[in-house]
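Retry 2 of 3 after timeout on previous attempt. Resubmitting structure tokens to design endpoint.
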């Protein structure tokens, strides 16, 4: 079944399979949202008198039954049915006869698809934000557990200045909280109701778009009907950009971990149960999980660009090119969430190595502290003290304990980020 099919049309089999693509598989992600939008649409049709109140009630009851089937996991898109939208109307017609055909009154598959995508994006962004906040909480707990353990900070991949593992990990937590701004922006773009714009040119029926906007929890509605089709690709790219921002931070964390587990660094240790081995070298314990996280987070970062290349320079109005966007975004989103879950699971098992800064190759990291000491004790200018310390910068012993200024920085960072995390959680709860 196809919503556009005429009785005299017989589509070529090869063309049919090509144009359907992966819709039957991927549209299952959109099923509950398409039903929710259809319920709101049926309510509006009944209230405005476009269909009778009894017809509206009958449609809503049937749609609620389908929603329950989706929640139970028994809903399927049948062979020969083009997509979720066709399947939904087919079920309504089977169960209700001609009344089922009235669900498509005053709407097009164009606004139907876009509304489902917008609802999906809003829900999925909220769930991803929750997962990220759980990961941030895990990071901050790890940082608090490993406070005052010194490590060399690196610039140009060379020993630079002393820091702590708590400050290293908390930097990624803070970056993820910053990345949330991209998700918030994507949510704003998906907060406009396109239902009722039909094919991009509105409807001659006396529909009430403000009603469906309120029923579906949209912030506002698309003002110009033609603007709805310009949202296609924009919502998907905004969501992909949010995922890419998170992925950039997490890919760099994965890279750090791989590096810090290597023999040249040995800053971190990973339990054998979280490593893999070699088929030829008995001694190997490989950080495959972090290498795969690095690769997969990097792959997610390509999605916004790929989406942009699909939609670049398309004229206004609807084009079938948009169908490809689901194939780019939805699997990438699944992969991203899986990676976040795995990272949240393995991160607490990372163990920092103590005593790193006592190694000879890292003695120079205390040179800045020695400069500051000379400035305080000798009254020297920074540049004079700098030149004096440079003569013996590689022979400065490490202190016996974490310096007070680093302890203070840890305390301030963890306190500030804990507050920021709670604020983000509160904002998310209020938006839901």
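Retry 2 succeeded. Sequence:
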């Amino acid at each position: 079944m196809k919503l556009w099919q005429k009785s005299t049309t017989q589509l070529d089999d090869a063309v049919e399979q090509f144009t359907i693509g992966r819709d039957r598989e991927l549209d299952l992600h959109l099923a509950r949202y398409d039903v929710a939008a259809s319920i709101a649409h049926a309510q509006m049709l009944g209230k405005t008198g476009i269909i009778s109140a009894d017809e509206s009630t009958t449609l809503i009851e049937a749609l609620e039954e389908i929603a329950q089937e989706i929640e139970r996991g028994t809903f399927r898109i049948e062979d020969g049915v083009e997509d979720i939208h066709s399947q939904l109307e087919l079920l309504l017609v089977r169960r209700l006869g001609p009344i089922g055909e009235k669900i498509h009154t005053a709407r097009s598959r164009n606004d139907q698809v876009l509304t489902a995508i917008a609802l999906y994006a809003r829900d999925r962004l909220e769930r991803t934000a929750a997962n990220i906040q759980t990961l941030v909480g895990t990071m901050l707990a790890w940082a608090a557990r490993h406070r005052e353990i010194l490590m060399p900070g690196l610039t140009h991949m060379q020993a630079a200045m002393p820091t702590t593992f708590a400050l290293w990990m908390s930097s990624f937590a803070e970056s993820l909280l910053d990345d949330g701004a991209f998700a918030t922006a994507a949510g704003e773009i998906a907060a406009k109701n396109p239902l009722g714009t039909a094919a991009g040119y509105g409807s001659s029926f006396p529909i009430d778009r403000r009603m469906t906007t309120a029923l579906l929890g949209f912030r506002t509605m698309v003002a110009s009907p033609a603007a709805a089709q310009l949202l296609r690709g924009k919502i998907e790219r905004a969501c992909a950009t949010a995922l890419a921002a998170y992925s950039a931070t997490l890919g760099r964390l994965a890279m750090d971990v791989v590096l810090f587990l290597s023999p040249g660094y040995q800053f971190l240790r990973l339990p054998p149960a979280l490593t893999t081995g070699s088929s030829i070298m008995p001694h190997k314990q490989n950080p495959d999980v972090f290498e795969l996280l690095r690769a997969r987070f990097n792959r997610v970062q390509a999605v916004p660009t790929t989406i942009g290349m699909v939609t670049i320079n398309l004229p206004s109005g609807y084009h079938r090119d948009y169908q490809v966007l689901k194939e780019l975004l939805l699997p990438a989103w699944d992969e991203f969430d899986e990676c976040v879950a795995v990272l949240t699971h393995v991160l607490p098992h990372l163990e920092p190595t103590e005593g790193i800064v006592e190694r000879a190759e890292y003695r120079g990291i205390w040179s800045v502290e020695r400069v500051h000491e000379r400035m305080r004790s000798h009254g020297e200018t920074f540049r004079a003290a700098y030149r004096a310390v440079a003569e013996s910068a590689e022979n400065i012993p490490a202190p016996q304990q974490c310096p007070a200024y680093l302890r203070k920085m840890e305390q301030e960072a963890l306190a500030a980020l804990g507050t920021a995390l709670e604020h983000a959680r509160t904002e998310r709860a209020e938006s839901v």
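Attempt log closed. The chain has a mean pLDDT of 92.
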